[in-house]
Specification:
The protein is an alpha/beta fold. The chain is 51% helix and 12% strand. The chain is built from 24 helices and 13 strands. The protein has helices spanning 2-14, 65-73, 117-127, 132-145, 160-172, 190-203, 241-247, 253-271, 314-321, 325-341, 343-363, 386-392, 406-414, 428-437, 443-448, 460-482, 507-537, 540-546, 551-580, 589-613, 617-634, 646-653, 658-670, 677-704, and strands at residues 25-36, 39-50, 54-58, 80-85, 102-105, 178-182, 210-215, 226-231, 234-239, 371-377, 399-403, 420-424, 452-455. The chain is elongated, with a radius of gyration of 38 Å.
């Protein structure tokens, strides 16, 4: 490699660099402004990167270097001005900027820690459309040239310098015509820093590659062909390093930069670029003596230029807007590889819905067990007494009877020891017999022949259960004593066989369909929202977008990838609710699966909206969790919608899961199909919300990029 570098340096001395005029410019920025709200980040910036040169963009942290690079590669839109990259504006239809023509190394490493070196380079090779053979050849070269560890080494196990070299390798992979490196030498040892600069000098020798590199290590930029000195969003000067130092009689580039800063502060309000922004007049410009082009060393506005007009055929525009399957498949493979490298997390994702539905079926809707009830029986003991027989017919598995005196029983229930008191009068059997046999009885006999029950109604479910068990015990007692004459003391209401469901339908049966949809929906929300937010925070999304991946392709790839996880979760959920917990299903299993998948996709789409709008994972978590309980309460999942007061019921009916939960109950418990309005309405509403969330996420991502 050293021999190649020496040979290249000799050739570089013999060959003059190409002309930096408009026709020889890799990047041209004219009057570029970029603002965030009222904060002006770039102010009337003019910059020219000659073709086949190394351009060192210098300046302190926060001066706008990274923002400028994002505008150049097309991931940020400028507020005003004009940018031309390799002959056309960035993101122009059919122009591969962002795309294959640009190699981009962001300031953050922006690498997938679960990937190996081979996985990383293969991923970017797929995005850039390289064949497997070409990718492998370039990979072998880069591993050798950059002195990387073995290709199967995981990125997370590499040192900081090794990771930075892998990041540089990803930028160099496709032999780009324009190489943009944002602070590539931050935190890098001097030996590696020198090696990076040596390689940059070598690759620009042919004139086919241009490099723009940002750094706040000003002196190392002496090796660049051209430097641009930047401060507070303005370019103070632009030209060869030696010329900049000579102009200011400075021995170092850093000294020249300090003089420029002092001068701009002094004349800023009158003549150009100050800390608040502006453009320097010709007094702060350099003249190169070239008449055929604008001087490299000038940053003033210069003569008025007629900006070229660009147009693209409608077919090219259409192809540019359509998502590319190549990029979608590359992103899907990337997600699958990451899942494969995190088996613990993947198993947890698969088992979590099963655990949740199992806990719901085991803990919700069943009858309370071991409920302690005080029994005050004042009737004289007799084996034939009605009170003894009635108590023997009470369900002892649910109700635990504690015989007590009247005072002890009421003291216990006031102290919270018992849930109720069952009392029998002294002549209960005799009075009850008279109530049944004789038409006319006194009020005292009616009262004495009644079972008196005092309940603690602070827990409604336990109280309802006790009432039901006592009614069942009394009905069993009547049937036992009166046989065919039991109708005399029965309510004149007969409940026939139910049209749908069964007499034993419990609360668990009502809750399960909605709970299944809710679990599928919110697990998809959590997976999507967090993964996108983390990828953006680590710079991974930006790097993919610079490589030519659109926001729509990113969303579609994530949508298709998560469908695999959702499918496994749905299969496990259905196995448990149908086979283990015996939840009835009278309808089409295909419709059940289709509705669950559709709700999962809607959850993914909602997660995309959260991740597109929110940058911080904590806020994303709060947004997802904040929607959980209102949706659970208002969607009729744990309590019927008919119980919701009308102002809130209108809100309930527009939520994504209200009609879907109703449709799933109709399919499973009534056996209905798509011909029924209550079924297809659930599908239509889910599809509508899904489309709305996808469009909203696409718009937000488009606006933010």
């Amino acid at each position: 490699m050293e021999e190649r570098l020496k040979e290249g340096n000799m050739k570089a001395d013999l060959e003059a660099p190409p002309s930096p005029g408009p026709e020889g410019s890799a990047i041209r920025c004219r009057d570029v402004c970029r603002s965030y709200s009222k904060l002006k980040v770039l102010s009337n910036l003019n910059l020219t990167v000659p073709q086949g040169h190394i351009y060192g963009l210098l300046g302190p942290s926060g001066c706008g270097k990274t923002t400028l690079l994002k505008c150049i590669v097309g991931t940020l839109k400028i507020s005003r001005g004009h940018i031309s990259v390799l002959g056309k504006p960035p993101a122009f239809p059919g122009h591969e900027v962002p795309g294959k023509m640009v190699g981009y190394m962001p300031q953050d490493l922006a690498l997938y820690s679960e990937f190996t070196i081979s996985d990383t380079l293969t991923f970017f090779g797929r995005i850039h459309g390289l064949t497997s053979k070409d990718t492998q050849a370039r990979m072998d070269f880069l591993v050798d040239f950059l002195d990387l560890p073995q290709k199967q080494s995981l990125v997370r196990n590499l040192s900081g310098g090794q990771r930075r070299r892998v990041s540089l390798g990803a930028a160099l992979l496709q032999n780009p015509k324009l190489l943009i490196l944002d602070e590539p030498t931050v935190g890098v040892d001097p030996v590696l820093r020198a090696k990076i600069w040596q390689h940059l000098v070598e690759i620009v020798k042919t004139g086919n590659v241009s490099v723009i590199i940002t750094t706040h290590y000003i002196e190392e930029a002496r090796q660049a062909n051209v430097v641009g000195l930047m401060r507070n969003g303005c370019l103070l000067a632009e030209g060869p390093p030696d010329a900049v130092m000579k102009q200011h009689s400075a021995s170092t580039l850093e000294h020249a930069f300090l003089q420029l800063c002092e001068t701009s502060d002094q004349v800023g309000s009158k003549r150009g670029c100050s800390p608040q922004g502006g453009v320097l007049e010709d007094s702060q410009s350099f003249e190169s003596g070239r008449e055929e082009s604008r001087p490299i060393l000038g940053v003033g506005p210069g003569p008025a230029e007629e900006l070229p007009k660009y147009s693209a055929d409608w077919k090219v525009r259409a192809r540019h807007m359509l998502p590319k399957w190549r990029n979608i498949s590359a992103l899907m493979i990337k997600t699958m590889v990451r899942m494969k490298r995190m088996p613990g997390s993947l198993c947890f994702q698969f088992l979590l819905p099963v655990i949740q539905i199992s806990l719901m079926c085991l803990c919700v809707g069943g009858d309370p067990k071991g409920i302690r009830v005080a029994v005050v029986n004042n009737e004289t003991f007799s084996t034939s007494s009605y009170s003894r027989l009635l108590l023997s017919l009470l369900d002892n598995s649910s109700v635990e009877q504690v015989p007590l005196s009247h005072a002890e029983a009421f003291t216990g229930i006031y102290n919270g020891e018992y849930w109720g008191v069952i009392g029998f009068g002294k002549n209960f059997s005799h009075n009850l017999y008279n109530r049944v046999v004789y038409r006319k009885v006194s009020k005292d006999e009616v009262d004495g022949g009644s079972v008196h029950v005092w309940l603690d109604l602070t827990n409604r479910q336990i109280a309802i259960m006790l009432q039901q068990k006592i009614h069942e015990a009394f009905q069993a007692f009547v049937d036992n004593k009166m046989g065919s004459m039991s109708y005399l003391v029965a309510l004149p209401i007969k409940f026939e066989e139910p049209i749908y469901g069964s007499q034993n339908t419990d609360f668990t049966t009502f809750v399960t369909p909605g709970a299944v949809l809710s679990i599928t929906f919110y697990l998809a929300v959590g997976l999507t929202a967090l993964s996108f937010v983390l990828e953006r925070k680590e710079g991974l999304l930006d790097r993919c977008w610079v490589a030519g991946v659109s926001s729509l392709e990113t969303m579609l790839a994530h949508l298709f990838s998560q469908l695999f996880v959702i499918s496994v979760q749905i299969i496990l959920l259905l196995m448990f609710i149908l086979l283990v917990f015996k939840i009835p299903n009278e309808g089409s299993l295909a419709l059940v699966v289709a509705l669950m998948v559709l709700q999962g996709v809607t959850g993914i789409s909602f997660g995309l909206v959260i991740s597109a709008a929110i940058d911080d994972e904590q806020n994303a978590n709060q947004a997802a969790l904040g929607m959980f309980y209102p949706n659970l309460i208002l969607s009729g999942i744990i309590w019927p919608v008919e119980c919701i007061p009308y102002p809130l019921r209108y809100l309930s009916l527009v939520l994504p899961q209200t009609y879907a939960a109703e449709a799933l109950r109709c399919i499973m418990y009534r056996g209905w199909g798509l011909t029924r309005m209550m079924v297809w309405r659930g599908f239509v509403v889910s599809l509508g919300w899904n489309s709305f969330f996808l469009i909203l996420a696409t718009v937000i991502l488009k606006l933010r990029t």
